[in-house]
Amino acid sequence: MINNSINELHHGLLKKDFSSVELAEYFLSRIKKLNPSINAFITVDEEKSLGQAKLADEKISKGDLNPLTGIPIAQKDIFCAKGWKTTCGSLMLDNFISPYDAYVIEAFNKAGSVNLGKTNMDEFAMGSSNETSYYGPVKNPWNLDYVPGGSSGGSAAAVASRMAPIATGTDTGGSIRQPASLCGLTGLKPTYGLVSRFGMIAFASSLDQAGPMALTAEDCAHMLNVMAGYDERDSTCINRPKEDYLANLDHSIQGLKIGIPKEFFDEGLDANVQKLVEEALNEYKKLGAELVDISLPNTSLAIPVYYVIAPAEASSNLSRYDGVRYGYRAKEYKDLMDMYFKTREQGFGEEVKRRILIGTYVLSAGYYDAYYLKAQKIRKLISNDFKEAFTKCDVIMGPAAPSVAFKSGDKKEDPLAMYLQDIYTISTNLAGLPGMSLPVGQTQGLPVGLQIIGNYFKESQMLNMAHAYQQKTQWHKMMPEGV
Ligand code: GLN
Questions:
Q1: Is 438 part of a structural domain of the chain?
Q2: Do 157 and 38 form a contact (C-beta atoms < 8 A)?
Q3: How many domains are there within the chain?
Q4: Partner of 270 for a Cys bridge, out of 83, 264, 360, 403, CB 3.0 to 4.6 A?
Q5: Is residue 134 part of a domain?
Q6: Crossing angle for the helix pair 459-472 and 271-286, to the nearest 10 degrees
Q7: Which residues are catalytic?
Q8: Which atom of ligand 1 is found nearest the CA of 127?
Q9: What is the CB-side half-sphere exposure of residue 446 using CA atoms within 13 A?
Q10: pTM, entire model
């Protein structure tokens, strides 16, 4: 079971090689064994998981099933799940039991999947190393001294260590692709608006998107089939016909044009990562694709622009945590104002407070035009760069992250160094484009990811490109030692 794809698990369930309850028990026992050292899960509730598995077994015996029925999944703790503690990695929500399901949770429940638990994450999804969680850092299963990336590092570590076959993540500036890259997984951030954000705790609403994290592109396609869909409870969700993301997986990629942005191969890129990414690009040439040089001239502005826009939106979104309606409330205070201050002082961690301070500052009267408005204008320029690039190519490829995983603690005290982890991913969030990462090699025993960026709603084509590579290579099958 340990390395089985969704298709293989599905067939095992159909042939009665194992039941959904047995499958859930298998992964729950792996969580028991491995989670104490990896810390990928914040909440595990065996009773709830096995209850869902029993229901799935009933569905399967009645023939009422789809490929995800009875398949265990780990859910990032940013998704509200009814009856489950939903913390977003923060003390602020440590006591919050969600009264309702997020769209994504609802969709997997409807499909009959089994929730194995809620995964650890950087607090309010702010971070690139999973060291800002109130619940302690997550460890990279490839080497426990290293970070798994963030903010979906718990989900990435859970799948990489085979505590779960698949997991959900969210990506505001790179939080699916960077941890996928650092943990050797395939992860996809969809086009903005493809997956409803309803019930997904908001960080920066114009950038946040949920997506799949798995071993293969094929499994991501299965998951996207469940996750993508229109939902009127998210006003930014786009109403378009449902697609089958498995349909094009086996298409030939002969003649497809891959744009290589020169700005993605600058001095900030680790030489070993560059070498492995170039080898992967060569593999694509062998598969019949054509490489074309392109330019995304505003790439270097993406991080400064993101660190105006994302904190601005976060400062507004996080104003709801005031100790009044739900979540943490300071124990001792003098009056209402004091209660607000103490609650937010105690309930939020350092990185979250840093973002709220920056966000409040750039939105304040007198500074709005200089920072926020200017950032929005540059955001448009970044989108235009992609528009221009896509007149020359079908997809864009480059590294997902500038380096392999780094040692825990190495960048913790240096926010700017941490922010640079997303240098190659952030511009797609600003433009609303889809992006994915897939494993294409290892250096010093740590995985390296290749990023594929597609045009709007071209997830199918990106998955086709990733699948073609995975039919020829074995990197997605590698498993860390000792798990
Ligand atoms: N690392 C980025 C940040 O800290 C992106 C996080 C994300 O995508 N959720 O904001």
A1: no
A2: yes
A3: 1
A4: 403
A5: yes
A6: 90
A7: 76, 151, 175
A8: 4
A9: 23
A10: 0.98
